[in-house]
Amino acid sequence: METANIHHIGNPTNRVDGRLKVTGAARYAAEHEASGLLHGVIVSATVAAGRVVSLETERALSVPGVVEIFTHENRGSGAWLDRNWKDEVAPPGHPFRPLHSDRILFAGQPIALVVAETLEAARDAASLVTAAYEVEQHCTELEVKRSEAYEPPEKRSGIPPPPEPRGKPEDAFERARHRIAADYRIRAEHHNPMELFATTCVYEGKDKLTIYEKTQGSQNSQGYVASVFGLKTKNVRVINHYVGGAFGSALRPQQQLFFAVMASLELKRSVRVVLTRSQMFYIGYRPETRHAISMAADNEGRLTSIIHGAVAATSHYEDYQESIVNWSGMMYHCDNVKLSYGLAKLNTATPCDMRAPGAAVGVTAFECAVDELAHEAGIDPLEFRKRNFATLDENMGKQFTSKALSACYHQGAARIGWERRSAEPGAVRDGHELVGLGMATGMWEAFLMKASAEAKLTPDGRLQVSTAASDIGTGTWTILAQIGADALGLPVEDVTPMIGDSSLPASPVEGGSWTAASNGSAVLAACEAIKQTLFKHARKMANSPLTAASFDEVVFLSGRIALRTDPDRGLSLPEVMHASDLDEIRGSGKAAPKLLQMRKYVSYTHSAVFTEVRVDRDIGIVRIPKIVCAVAAGKIINPKTARSQILGGVVMGIGMALHEEAMTDHRLGKIMNHNLAEYHVPAHADIADIEVIFVDEQDEKVSPLGVKGLGEIGIVGTAAAVANAIFSATGKRVRDFPITLDKIIR
Amino acid sequence: MDTPKIEIALTVNGVRHDIAVAPWETLLDVLRERLHLTGSKKGCDQGQCGACTVLVDGERINSCLALVVSRDGAAITTVEGLAEGGELHPLQAAFIEHDAFQCGYCTPGQLCSGVALLHEGRVHTREDIRELMSGNLCRCGAYTNIADAIETVLDRQNAGREAAE
Amino acid sequence: MIRFDYVRANSVAEAVTALSSPGTRALAGGTNLVDLMKYDVMKPRRVVDINRLPLKDISERESGGLRIGALVTNTALAWDARVAKRYPLLASAILAGASPQLRNAATTGGNLLQRTRCYYFYDTSTPCNKREPGSGCSAIGGLNRIHAILGASNSCIAVHPSDMCVALAALDAEVEVVGPQGVRTIPFPEFHRLPGDDPQQDNTMQADELITAVILPPANFGRNHTYLKVRDRLSYAFALVSVAAALEMRDGIVRDARVALGGVAHKPWRDNEAEDLLNGERPDETTFRAFAERLMRDAKGQGHNDFKIELARRTILRALMQAAAGTPQNQSDKVIR
């Protein structure tokens, strides 16, 4: 790609959707109007396992305005085969089919949909629907099922299973000078995006739907609807221009999509279904994990053995899988490694990817263990990590396309003032507070996925770039405009990005931190095609200053195509188009993983997280006055939105460290803190100073843009850094997340 | 039971609306569903997130917990009413400049809450901003940028006041 | 939210008349009632809107002290200059609770009538004696991290969630209520009640009574006081334990000590006998420790909340040290001095 004419990439451009968002004009899924719109409210099961014996709907039906109540007995028909219910990111198993039968597999499972003329009538009536159940035995407690954990027989696409063991980890552990063995627990978390899950399904006439949907993948939802309801794909258009947060929870189609579409097709009316906040606790979640880790090091603090086994929860109907333990075999150099991962079935909904799925929990446990071993070996935890630096992915025996982790260590340590850290835990006091410093390493894969884009240039010098990507707060609208602007040398205001619509060029779901690299590269390629066309026409023009030039010898700058060596000699883009009588120039582009390169190389984003914590010695309250997150993520397209991505990950990491847990009453199989008052996400007062550093990292191989992705990396390692800092402050190892104050004062 | 609707008047962003409402309709639902002012967001519907924050007679409240019938005659400002004649409120502009949002869903509530905070005159420290904005959750984690945006406008406001004195 | 009728009261008398019809609830700020109605925890047949009643003033009483109208919002009360000067403990407690938005809507009377945040009370699919008398208590043997360590019964281990009421308890406030029989004044300790066998009753008011005011007696706690709240996040969360402490000191000796606890019982917790241990003593750590020990003498954990007993001891000690030193907790600054 051109490097001479970069103006917008690397700039902290304000969000192009900013004005719409601060004026309330950005419309989210539940905010689109339709004539004669009906409102649907879901009724949820109150038991965790069994059968619905009877449903009493008479009282609900008598509420004025109620149109219909759907139950398993009168639901619209969906597809018969499992594969028709599988969305793009479905794990192996039998996808959940709402109202499929009388069987209850988890508490909160939908058992009816009340549809009414007004929201209030639907809500009122839904509260009057009662069910009688034949209750069966349930289990929602991971510890109880831990001994029955199994290796998932069918692997989830895109999730590598743990690598084969290498060396002799058990022997090495036995012989080692320094060793630790500990169990860690990270409790279930819920995404809780601020926007309630919603679908507005606009009935456009016979079997044709326009669906405003909270999703991270408009085409994933489109494919699901077409396949489940037997509709033609072209008759299903899914729009998700603005998505009020998701963090993975909207990767898969959620219940409300099925219900809105089903009711719409049955009633031949437009229908909106919105989940309540409580109901959002019964869709996908980050499963609880239990970790048994033992590690050993020699006299010099070199790792000689790593054994990490994890067990995670899944549902009774799908084998949801994450890459949890693999990180432990690739973060540091070690010749003796054994990693294992098992699942245990619980009466819950299938878990769902949540920000840095797998790494967020696996690395948290592992990086706490690393801290424990460094302490045991009497070595500063940062120094310990440096000594064990991995120059290769030792799981796969492949090279990193880049790894500027040392710079992260160096710059992060400098900014937190790591030299202040006392080797002796509990030694630094300030008033009633104990002060500690902790750190951890973070890691996330830099994916390049298949994606397509189109670009269109018009003679007014305006460029449109389109791809069916989603912006869930990630800044996708903005960076695509920047990429387009740079490619054609236009002001960013003259570029109109188009995303959030299933009718646009093919895109994967927005997840895994791959959107900037994948969709961005596709947009770049589409713009390159336009440049080629422009160049071809420009050369042919009478008296063209470019006649003798090759494509490599021209640049696109300030709305012109000009000679690289003499930019004054060139033509404006409108000039070229007018002269050639072109109404528009279109280009299309694709991005795809480089399979040949992947035989030899792997690409990862790295980070080092440094934390200062202050813990009240008596009361156990933890404050985090400062966190520094230093990230090596290749090229940063927009430092402003990029920084926000890291801030968001760090804040969610603080949540994992201190606040977040689903509290399940295992007798009932029900989550009891299913609201934002008792499921604590960090509030403003919990967040003080967060510093984000992007270290310089050039990577020509990772993606055509040199971009690695940022959505996940901010959370990876953060909870461990906090826990390690709490140890530094107090001398107390809390291995059960979240670290609430009772665990500190205990 | 089909309770007759009750006639009330609301002035929303300077526009008077005479509407008939049922007792159980909330201010938030009326704004969103009846007046199609969807800027005010529903994040929990239980007063636990702050996304629905609007100004009622100048004070910030959670509109999801206000039965609209009890607010008969009130003057309401929603996020749609913060800009004047196409010119953004300084806090809206500061939110864009400081990237004080990501997904944008909590933003209208943050802005209404922040605008009220600027008027209330109770902020003396950065800690005060954090505490007095804690009724607005942001799951994207934009808190530090929100505080920066508010601080910027507050500083400018204070500087303006000093200059006037 | 189940449908209901709505009436607007134009006078206190009208409100009281309306309340005498069964299934009627008074609506003020709505921050708790509407929430509970949305969860179908409370299902009034009729709501009487009292927001237009002339109960929005804070006035001086001839005998000293202040009379706070029941409809004075939490914000108006917390930032009232007289309250800030003479009852800073009350202002601080209010500002420790909820959020500015909720405090703008919530009223003085409504705050007293807040209902518990027990998970099971809020979830209509689970047994709860407070919501459904006789159905059982799910919190006993269930999730009870946030539950009572003092004064609980076999029927209910819920706690009262208010911060403001903890300060009012410490300040010996009184509650003025009006019913068909006229006006009566209820001393604060007698207003909220322990669950006993009928936890559905949070307080000693009758269904047809209306709170019209809270009376604050003259007080001398302008200097030595604090409201210290401990919770699971640093703001916008209910208390695990909170302590309202107020000391009247003369010549380095405690003359009048008031300590009320929040988050530990079905009502703001005071123990006058224990407080006597402080009167006439030097305000030092030994004295305060003995007091905390005494206050927790009958504390009983339910499993998950066992930690609250020790937490309460430590919070009491720290609060008393803050009060004695005249360095009350600042609700924005999260460092506990």
Count helical runs of chain A: 17
The tally of beta strands of chain C, per DSSP, is 12
CATH H level of the largest domain in chain A: which superfamily? Aldehyde oxidase/xanthine dehydrogenase, molybdopterin binding domain
Largest β sheet strand count, sense and barrel closure of chain A: 7 strands, mixed
Using the 3D structure, state the CATH architecture of the largest domain in chain A.
Answer: 2-Layer Sandwich
Order of strands in the sheet with most strands of chain C: 4-5-8-6-7
Strand arrangement within the widest β-sheet of chain A reads 3-5-1-11-8-9-10
How far the N terminus sits from the C terminus of chain C, by CA atoms, comes to 44 Å
Termini gap of chain A? 58 Å
CATH superfamily of the domain at 225-325 in chain C: CO dehydrogenase flavoprotein, C-terminal domain
One letter per element, helices H and strands E, the order of chain C comes to: EHEHEEEHHHHHHHEEHEEEEEHHH
Structural class of chain C: alpha+beta
**What share of residues are in beta strands of chain A?**
15-25%
Q: Oligomeric status of the shown chains? A: heterotrimer
What would your notes on this structure say?
Chain A: Residues 144-157 have a biased composition (Basic and acidic residues). The complex is a heterotrimer of chains A (746), B (165) and C (337). Chain A is α+β, with helices and mostly antiparallel strands. Helices cover 24% and strands 25% of the residues of chain A. In chain A, the strands form eight sheets. A seven-stranded mixed beta sheet of chain A has the order 3-5-1-11-8-9-10. A five-stranded mixed beta sheet of chain A has the order 14-13-12-7-32. In chain A, strands 17-18-27-28-31 form a five-stranded mixed beta sheet, with helices on both faces. The termini of chain A are far apart. The relative contact order of chain A is 0.14. In chain B, strand 3 (53-56) and strand 4 (59-62) form a beta hairpin. Among the domains of chain C are: 5-51, Uridine Diphospho-n-acetylenolpyruvylglucosamine Reductase, domain 2; 225-325, Enolase-like, domain 1, CATH 3.30.390.50. With 337 residues, chain C is an alpha+beta fold. In chain C, helix 5 (88-95) runs antiparallel to helix 9 (164-170) and helix 12 (285-295) packs antiparallel against helix 13. Chain C has a five-stranded antiparallel beta sheet with strand order 4-5-8-6-7. Chain C has a four-stranded antiparallel beta sheet with strand order 9-10-11-12, sandwiched between helices. Chain C is 28% helix and 20% strand. At the A-B interface, helix 1, helix 3 and helix 15 of A face helix 1, helix 2, helix 3, helix 4 and helix 5 of B.
